[in-house]
Amino acid sequence: MQPSPMDTTALNVVALVSIGAHPTSGRPRRAEQDARAVELGLRLAGEAMQVVHAGDARQEALRGYLGMGIKQLHVLEQPAQADVLHALSDYLLDSDAQLILTGSQAETGEGSGMLPYLLAEQLGWPIVVGLAEVERIDHGIAHVLQALPRGQRRRLQVQMPFIASVDNAAPLARQSAFGPARRGELTVTAANVCPDQLFKEGQLQPARPRPKRLKVIKAKTGAERMKAATAKASGGGGQVLKDCSPTEGAEAIFKLLMDEGVLR
Amino acid sequence: MMLNTVLPILLFAALALAVIGAMKRFAMWRRGRAAQVDWIGGLLAMPRRYMVDLHHVVARDKYIANTHVATAGGFVLAAVLAILVHGLGLHNRILGFTLLVATGLMFVGALFVAKRRLNPPARLSKGPWMRLPKSLLAFSASLFIATLPVAGILPAGFGGWLLAAILLLGIAWGVSELFFGMTWGGPMKHAFAGALHLAWHRRAERFGGGRSTGLKALDLDDPQTPLGVEKPKDFTWNQLLGFDACVQCGKCEAACPAFAAGQPLNPKKLIQDMVVGLAGGTDAKFAGSPYPGKKIGEHSGAPHLPIVSLDGKALVDAETLWSCTTCRACVEECPMMIEHVDAIVDMRRHLTLEKGATPNKGAEVLENLIATDNPGGFAPGGRLNWAADLDLPLMRDKQEADVLFWVGDGAFDMRNQRTLRALVKVLKAANVDFAVLGLEERDSGDVARRLGDEATFQQLAKRNISTLAQYRFNTIVSADPHSFHVLKNEYGAFGGDYSVLHHSTYIDQLISSGKLNLSQHQGASVTYHDPCYLGRYNGEYEAPRSVLKAIGIEVKEMQRSGFRSRCCGGGGGAPITDIPGKQRIPDMRMVDIKETGAEIVAVGCPQCTAMLEGVVEPRPQIKDIAELVAEALVETTATRPAQREAVEAV
Amino acid sequence: MSDIIRRDPRAEWIARNRLHPLHSSMQSSVTRWLSAAGVTRKNPHAVGFIGPNGIKRIDRSGAQQSSGSKRSSPTAEKQLPLHIVEQPAFHICVVPDMVGGRLSSHDKDLLGLAHKLAGTEGAVVAVVFAEHKENGFDTAGVDRILHFTDAVFDGYSPEQRVQALVRVENQLEPRHWLLPDSRNGGGELGRRLAASLSERPATRVWQVADEQSIGRAGAGQQDLHRPAPRLILASAECAEPISETRHQAQPMQLQDAINPSRSRIKDLGAVAVDPALIPMAEAEFILSGGNGVSDWSLFHQAAETLGATEGASRVAVDDGFMPRNRQVGATGTWVTARVYLAVGISGAIQHLQGIGACDKVIAVNMDANCDMVKRADLSVIGDSAAILQALIARIDAHRQGGIRDAA
């Protein structure tokens, strides 16, 4: 695809960001996908893009987004475990945004990934899931690439304004630098607070590891059960073909590739 | 007589020009940021620094040392006497004879300079430097002949006006090169700038046998302090002065592992580029080896222009800065004691802290360090998993121990865990009262700092210091020279002053106090690879060798060992930034190792282990000193009672 | 055939009578078994085969499979008991992904979960869009099937599909909606439906029991326990798939035809993605080369023929044969390929760490003792160039054969 000749810097792009959690340590950081959304926004609109967070402005991790070279980050002040949907949709209705970018799901809290859909519903805008690239925009119609599993892409045409969520197929976020992060400004606005009903009934617990599914043994007789129980556990060294001709070796590989269905 | 009237005019005119040039040059340096220097003390200490410390470095090459003593000594003496004799007209015979000796000495020295220049090695710069021996010869010869009448050897007025004119021409050439050329940017600038650089050096501790290798801290509390160096004027002024002192001898170039590997770095060119930056202009006049793979004449800069442009060409390309392994071989070799590594890290700081442009895996590593306290992004809770079965005493439980064993991030690396376990075995065998911080330990900040992320470094350092402050211990022992260096030399600026030992030093102490019962190493021949951060950074060359000797190993030394040891390529975040070259630094080092014919290479650093083990087999085995010592341990009585008990229990 | 073991006295007699002409064919081919006492028993007579010279040969390489087939009549397709729901008390609606027109294993897990929720009273309704190739809805546990075949549902049409599902909601008022929380469309469709129905879904659910659902929350470090909501987006392996019953898979119709409004998103079709450009971390099938690869142009040709994304070991990258962004391993990219074909890679620990998530690893190597071979599910020892060439030839032959079959 040729780089689009159109100038997207005039585009009014808003990225919604949240506080993330590092996958191994759980410490607060800029959320991976949200940072990718900001990256996409920066590529489209440059520094003119707006970045909005609904939550606690004192959270240091927010500076991670400023460190990407954004001068200002709007914070809609919200207490922990509030439903930020209304605060955000109120803000966005007034913002004359043309493109709203978000990550696919939050790294903390429920992380249901519902926010972009609910916003789209509230604003009455279309939503593109898994945006990978905006190819061009003309006359209020955007041509975008949507990321599919395993690196595949699908081209979509969508009416502006729209909401797009990005996942890990979007361009990697640029490094967050200390200098701009320190200089960047957090502007805080009060917003309507709407408590989240979820935590009245549900509760968060440390994740329980899920065991890998074992081969289900449907043994009818005692002998079969015995056999299954004493069978050598799978794994522990695969098949090794030594002293065979290249053709035999190739045949074995070919068979495995066919069985796995990766040959097209 | 013509000589007697023109010569003083010539001399004083040259001197006046030199003074004007000096003031202009000084003003150029002073464009840099303020630095704290001991103005008078430095000047007073300068002759000693010049004649002792600097000579020490130069004397590694006897030829040039003697040449330099003759030429420079002869010149200084000749210049002073020439001003007295010819400038002020003190036509004293003794002075005349002395001047003759001085110029004669200088002439002889200059002949040797000229000889070196007949077929100069690649590391030497050409261009105006090829002219220098001729200028020296012309000056000394002309002055010699012009002084003969003063000494009474020849009658005054000998040779008539023709000789006088030729002599005047020779002296004029000489003084323009040697007097005002010195301050107007000619090759002799090195003498003038070099002398002042020695006087106002930013690491005065280096003189008189001292050592100063820790990076200087950035003041992050003051938002006005620039975060690293963007433009030449962001260097401190005495750093700029230091760049100007370069004699372009190329010793750094010859020692630089990145240059040898064909990565786009040449320390000499880098310093010369900084000189271009401080004066303004292009690098077209540079007459030495270019950065490998980069043409000369395409880069330019000025004091107020950025040094690095991320999407074009400026003075220096970013990849040049990221090629450096911070091995300090250039600094070690530099006869002018220029601080290349400081300059490179200063410029890296700007790229990382302001531009967010740490290349390749750099950004990820820094993010991991912030979020998990280790560069690999491993769960912090797994820091002690390698020792799950070792029952290591924790500082938190003991509060107090003789030795605090600083494990380092090698704890997450399966190869390094073998080294760590070996070291634990040794410590236990010697009944050392030691403890580890366990999960309270964090990365020392070494990688973050060398990658220019001073903010993350300081955060890690401050947290480590506050952790260490909770406990009482006498010594920190680490098997990682990088942690060792940072803890020893770089935590002091933040209030963390400790006695820190590398494990080889500590094992050496254990051996000499008879706490270890060691057998002799069996068989294989062994060479030893000096880690940069242990050797050049901290001067520890002996302890590892004496440990190896104690287990019966006679080290087959490599050609480049000790302070000349070649880097493994693993320092300064170089494996992370991974700038491509023509070959790999560890492969080159492995060639050095193979030349000795050794079957085992002893190392003392997890980075070196990883880099050297990354070389494709077949190659010598790589073993940490701790592993070799652990293998040679004789099971002592300390373990026997336990066995007996076990038997009795059965 | 039933599984009940029946004795055949005549066969037993023949097996005992060594002189009977059919004796050898009645011998059990089992050479090693576990006796009732738990002791391994061997039948040395059953081992081996008669070679061409009439001499008994024993092949210990493992290549020889025991030839005598067990005496059994051809197994008839087992007829599983049919689960019938005549008058469903309620409905559980499942919207399977139907990747490639077939029920995926994720879909089947979901149907299993649906039956747990349906019990004996409820009916599991599969809502299927567009054409499909599945003929195992009955054994997968589908009681009713709602098939939308309108052309508007072809391709990527999430907005139209949500409108259809809203109709289903209005007509059936299902007790639960179950969708796979996958990247194959289910996750998106489920959330769109949730937003449209104003139902708060439980997402990434991996267990539903006793009216409680447990799903992953946040970045996967926490679980969210909550009463099971109406709309559940469930992860793979959320329940066991149906395996012991057959279901009616009875087609259903909506009472009123649907007439989806124009969509604001238009599908312009898939974009051809060069396997070489797929980010390594996402690639499904990687052909990776290392120090043992001598002919790199052959390697690239093999990657093209296989349709595999190229990867490399650190050494191959260091030596300049492959770009740095193709390096696999702890210091390069951690890959998640389903099939990883490693050619001439000895398997440094960092490399093996990087392929930890790979399902099937195939090694082609000269050295049978290297670590990669120990890790691999299939290893071929030999010259990599010859084997790659043979593999290319084999695939070409297969493709041409395929074309001929199609023609």
UniProtKB/TrEMBL annotation, chain A:
Instruction: Report which superkingdom the organism of origin falls in.
Output: Bacteria
Gene3D superfamilies, alphabetically? HUPs
InterPro entries linked to this entry = ETF_a/b_N (IPR014730), ETF_b (IPR012255), Rossmann-like_a/b/a_fold (IPR014729)
Regarding protein family, the annotation reads: Belongs to the ETF beta-subunit/FixA family.
Would the keyword Electron transport turn up in this protein's UniProt record?
A: yes
**Keyword set for this entry?**
Electron transport, Transport
The protein's matches in PANTHER family, at most eight in alphabetical order, are given as: ELECTRON TRANSFER FLAVOPROTEIN BETA-SUBUNIT, ELECTRON TRANSFER FLAVOPROTEIN SUBUNIT BETA
Protein name in UniProt: Electron transfer flavoprotein beta subunit
Electron transport: present as a keyword of the record?
A: yes
GO terms of molecular function: electron transfer activity
Which residue intervals define the domain Electron transfer flavoprotein alpha/beta-subunit N-terminal in the entry? 19-198
TrEMBL record, chain B:
Q: Which domain of life is it from?
A: Bacteria
Q: Keywords for this entry?
A: 4Fe-4S, Iron, Iron-sulfur, Membrane, Metal-binding, Oxidoreductase, Transmembrane, Transmembrane helix
* Positions of the 4Fe-4S ferredoxin-type domain: 237-267, 312-343
- Note whether Metal-binding occurs among the keywords: yes
Renumbered to this chain, the signal peptide range is: none
InterPro entries per record: 4Fe4S_Fe-S-bd, 4Fe4S_Fe_S_CS, Csal_0991-like_N, Cys_rich_dom, HdrC_iron-sulfur_subunit, Helical_ferredxn
Which Pfam family is one of this chain's hits?
Fer4_8
User: PROSITE patterns, per this entry?
Assistant: 4FE4S_FER_1, 4FE4S_FER_2
What PANTHER family does the entry give? IRON-SULFUR-BINDING OXIDOREDUCTASE FADF-RELATED (PTHR43255:SF1), IRON-SULFUR-BINDING OXIDOREDUCTASE FADF-RELATED-RELATED (PTHR43255)
Q: Please give the name of this protein.
A: Fe-S oxidoreductase
The record lists the organism as Pseudomonas segetis
TrEMBL record, chain C:
Q: Which residues form a coiled coil?
A: none
Instruction: Indicate whether Transport appears among the record's keywords.
Output: yes
Does the record bear Electron transport in its keywords? yes
Q: Which domain of life does this protein belong to?
A: Bacteria
Q: Name one GO molecular function term.
A: electron transfer activity
Q: Name one Pfam family in it.
A: ETF_alpha
Domain Electron transfer flavoprotein alpha/beta-subunit N-terminal, first and last residues per copy: 92-267
Q: Which UniProt keywords apply?
A: Electron transport, Transport
Q: Which example biological process does GO assign this protein?
A: fatty acid beta-oxidation using acyl-CoA dehydrogenase
Q: Which SUPFAM superfamilies match?
A: Adenine nucleotide alpha hydrolases-like, DHS-like NAD/FAD-binding domain
Amino acid composition bias (Polar residues), ranges on this chain: 62-76
Return the similarity comment.
Belongs to the ETF alpha-subunit/FixB family.
Q: What is this protein called?
A: Electron transfer flavoprotein alpha subunit apoprotein
